[in-house]
């Protein structure tokens, strides 16, 4: 089995857990506050990792990372805001439609998956679409979390639009991170493949770190600019919730690194879809911890998504 499959799947599950707890914090704090301070905490953790590795900066990787961070920075604000206003079980899967972007990019660059992988991609995307179908009865709305001062979660066109906007940003993040990891490792951009001879070199080992470092720098810059033009209360010190917000950022950074390493060993279409499986973890956590219920179609969607993972692993 290609190493990109377990790494890509791990990135999706890690993103899903981080997104769930980020959404919880966004119901207690402004979305921009959660996004900014979590990203800053993730950046500090990444800086420590870079210092330990002692790998020299890779200019190409940083450049691609800067481009990726623009998409992820905007996507995070939209995503956390939609999680705060809407139902997590609906918002998270819609944002995962960003998987279409790396699939399209892989096809355009001639990097087509095999038959089993293609079936896995289709099954996973179909599962995400089914899980994305909202259930509107009021009794299915998540209960208030203790200490939550935000308004009750709700749906609507505004929430769907923000979730779709975050999907586009996340999709572009996947493509640019893949391009940065591949080009820094000495391969053609966006192929997601690394030559076996280069796999053990310091450059290919360290390049994902610098790609994500670039992404963190630009995402923080984007969030800072959003804070400057937003109302004063949109960005504030998280206070006693700093630890929880920091853990969200560290989890998100870990997922980013897992995806970057997966992109150096796997097909972009496959790895991108596996990374986009984060709604499964988010929905399951929302079901267990917030008592959010799934409809029959959404349960089928979860099964289809997991079936897609099995097919991708077997490819």
Assign the structural class, choosing from mainly alpha, mainly beta, alpha/beta, alpha+beta, or little secondary structure.
Answer: mainly alpha
Task: Note the run of SSEs as H and E.
Answer: HHHHHHHHHHHH
Quickly count the helices: 12
Strand content: under 5%
* Alpha carbon gap, first and last residue: 7 Å
- Which regions have little confidence, pLDDT < 50, spanning 5+ residues? 136-154, 187-206
Rg (CA only)? 18 Å
| Main pleated sheet | none
What is the mean pLDDT? Answer: 77
Characterize the overall form. globular
What is the number of beta strands? 0
Percent range of helical residues: over 70%
Could you explain the architecture of this structure?
By secondary structure, the protein is mostly helical. The longest helix has 28 residues, at 157-184. The protein is built from twelve helices and no strands. The N and C termini lie close together (7 Å). It has helices at 4-26, 31-53, 59-85, 88-95, 100-108, 115-131, 157-184, 202-229, 242-263, 268-275, 278-290, 296-314.
